């Protein structure tokens, strides 16, 4: 990564209203051109709020208060006014959502909804917009785009709706695409098609990609780098191979070990993580938030560990007090047991 | 497998009429389950896998007799229950229980946990004394890993995993022999999912349960199943012992499914055959003529569009419905 496309520093999102509920706590990350960063974590860990905050969707939501810096194309998005921000949304940074049915307007034709993005971000004639829309639909693999452009969303299948959402996101050739669980609502074979499409378009458009998912299989398939979130904090971030081969945080290691993957030997029991994640709106434990569920906890864990490198690679960071020896031996064994 | 199977499904069919055509007429029929046959032995776990619309949930509902099959035969423990009237299904409910996918929708939000499980207990033995009833509820909760204090809670106070545990306790309360679990873990987070899968396996061993486990997730299916059945558009297209199935699927659709699951290993693509199916699953309102998979099959030939293959026995006793089943060495789905 030579130069960061987007550089997020100390992003913090609190629930407004005086309660001490921190949904995203001091998250810093950078994504380069053509790079794929995956954010993984379980429900309620703050991954979606992080994504929506990057593109500015939580900015004017009275429930949240934000702080931090988001540097994108030489500007700090946190300091932009509403109009300037709207110019970036859709054109510089685009986002696709989990559920393609609820993110498309059921009353308008597909073509009109994609065309709207083009109208908002430039002056085009209506024939030009239609031509570009057909081209976009073709690029995302919709058959007979000339006729399907006049369909309504209900006439599309789930996979095709997600393709239409991707076409809409690509309309202004954004340099950064944020995808929030883009395939969770889809079947496995359709998911495969969409992931293959996203990978191809990323290369064609030279985009950076931030992909949010709970599925570590998808992460392994598409990511260059991974950030693991737990209870609103980044607990581990690093290159995909380093993180999968030598997880440095007990939560990452536990997650990896608990997947009933189709390539793992059918064992008697799946290693699981006891307990449940904290509900962020109700506060979280002092110090390391994973402490009540961790098998390796020390007295020190009541203080919040810093995010730092503990292995050989300087860009592989984790938020855990365990010594590098323990991490490399114990956690690795946990993870290898799963792969055996 | 010896003796009578606990469940025998023979040429089972269930179509649903779709209304909403001209003047409220019938627009067509969804071929939800079409000519499906298999046996499940006592103590066995059969995994059924398929994508949305393949008929796996309808099949589950037929087996527990929440819906009545149109044609074919359904036997439980040697008895024909295909068309048994609703009135006389009660004794059957004590033997067959369903665990639902959505733990948020399958528990009555107005009842306390003790009432939810108690209602199921009454089905087993209505004459149970009050004290015994409470003790039994506490014992069941403990068995699924919940403290007795949960008795007085309501579903909204519970997390998804805890609710699913209540759903399991409720199913166990009647003392069933067969459990049909319809996507019981797909609404849960990974770390919780592992716990529930372990619990189901423990309970199966402890109570000698027979399980039909339905899922779209081939990883979960592998972890729990002795045998695996694959469904596509209402048809059972492959049925095989789990180890053989995962080592070498015979049906091209099984191969594509296996290839499509994302593996939690960044280097998996190096050793894996990549198959990306074209197009979408056709509508179950009008399944394709011939082999239902031929429109998307990478190996389809002329005959596949003309005649539909039947589920037939291959070498090694495996069942597959395909004109050109994959040779063992070719498939690297793993």
TrEMBL record, chain A:
UniProt keyword list: ATP-binding, Nucleotide-binding
Protein name in the entry: ABC transporter ATP-binding protein
From TrEMBL, chain B:
Keyword presence, ATP-binding: yes
Swiss-Prot/TrEMBL keywords: ATP-binding, Nucleotide-binding
Protein name (database record): ATP-binding cassette domain-containing protein
């Amino acid at each position: 990564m030579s130069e960061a496309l987007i550089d997020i520093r100390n992003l913090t999102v609190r629930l407004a209203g005086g309660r001490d509920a921190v949904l995203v706590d001091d998250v810093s990350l950078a994504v380069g051109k053509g790079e794929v960063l995956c954010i993984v974590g379980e429900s309620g860990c703050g991954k979606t709020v992080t994504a929506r905050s990057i593109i500015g969707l939580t900015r004017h939501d009275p429930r949240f208060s934000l702080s931090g810096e988001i540097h994108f194309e030489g500007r700090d998005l946190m300091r932009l006014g509403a109009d300037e921000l709207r110019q970036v949304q859709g054109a510089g940074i685009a986002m696709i959502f989990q559920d393609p049915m609820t993110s498309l307007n059921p009353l308008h034709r597909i073509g009109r909804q994609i065309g709207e993005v083009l109208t908002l971000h430039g002056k085009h004639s209506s024939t030009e917009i239609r031509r570009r829309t057909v081209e976009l639909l073709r690029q995302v693999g919709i058959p007979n785009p000339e006729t399907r452009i006049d369909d309504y969303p209900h006439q599309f299948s789930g996979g095709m709706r997600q393709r239409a959402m991707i076409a809409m996101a690509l309309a202004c050739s954004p340099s950064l695409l944020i995808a929030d669980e883009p395939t969770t609502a889809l079947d496995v074979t359709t998911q495969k098609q969409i992931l293959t499409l996203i990978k191809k378009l990323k290369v064609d458009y030279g985009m950076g990609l931030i992909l949010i998912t709970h599925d570590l299989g998808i992460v392994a398939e598409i990511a260059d780098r991974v950030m693991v979130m737990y209870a609103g904090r980044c607990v581990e971030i690093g290159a995909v191979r380093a993180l999968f081969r030598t997880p440095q945080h007990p939560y990452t290691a536990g997650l990896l070990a608990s997947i009933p993957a189709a390539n793992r030997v059918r064992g008697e029991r799946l290693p699981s993580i006891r307990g449940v994640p904290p509900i962020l709106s109700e506060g979280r434990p002092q110090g390391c938030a994973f402490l009540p569920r961790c098998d390796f906890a020390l007295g020190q864990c009541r203080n919040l560990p810093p995010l730092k490198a503990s292995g050989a690679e300087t860009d592989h960071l984790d938020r855990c007090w365990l010594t590098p020896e323990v991490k490399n031996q114990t956690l690795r064994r946990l993870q290898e047991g799963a792969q055996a | 497998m010896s003796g009578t199977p606990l469940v025998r499904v023979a040429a089972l069919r269930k179509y649903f009429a779709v209304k909403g055509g001209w003047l409220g007429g019938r627009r067509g029929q969804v071929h939800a389950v079409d000519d499906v046959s298999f046996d499940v032995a006592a103590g066995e776990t059969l995994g059924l896998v398929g994508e949305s619309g393949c008929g796996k949930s309808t099949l589950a509902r037929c087996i527990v007799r929440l819906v009545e099959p149109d044609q074919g035969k359904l036997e439980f423990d040697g008895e024909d229950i295909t068309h048994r009237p609703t009135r006389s299904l009660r004794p059957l409910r004590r033997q067959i229980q369903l665990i639902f996918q959505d733990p948020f929708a399958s528990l009555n939000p107005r009842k306390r946990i003790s009432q939810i499980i108690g209602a199921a207990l009454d089905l087993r033995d209505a004459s149970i004394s009050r004290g015994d009833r409470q003790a039994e509820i506490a014992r069941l909760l403990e068995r699924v890993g919940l403290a007795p204090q949960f008795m007085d809670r309501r579903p909204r106070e519970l997390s998804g995993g805890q609710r699913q545990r209540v759903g399991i306790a409720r199913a166990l309360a009647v003392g069933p022999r067969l459990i049909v679990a319809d996507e019981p873990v797909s609404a849960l987070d990974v770390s919780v999912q592992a716990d529930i899968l372990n619990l189901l396996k423990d309970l199966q061993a402890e109570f000698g349960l027979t399980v039909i486990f339905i899922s779209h997730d081939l990883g979960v299916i592998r972890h729990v199943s002795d045998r695996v059945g694959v469904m596509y558009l209402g048809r059972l297209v492959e049925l095989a012992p789990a180890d053989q199935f995962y080592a070498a699927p015979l049906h091209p659709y099984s191969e594509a499914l296996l290839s499509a699951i994302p593996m939690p290993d960044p280097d998996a693509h190096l050793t894996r055959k990549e198959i990306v199916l074209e197009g979408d699953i056709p509508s179950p309102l009008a399944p394709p003529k011939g082999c239902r998979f031929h429109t998307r099959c990478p190996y389809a030939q002329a005959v596949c569009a003309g005649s539909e293959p039947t589920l037939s026995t291959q070498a090694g006793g495996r069942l597959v419905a395909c004109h050109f089943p994959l040779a063992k060495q070719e498939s690297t789905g793993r």
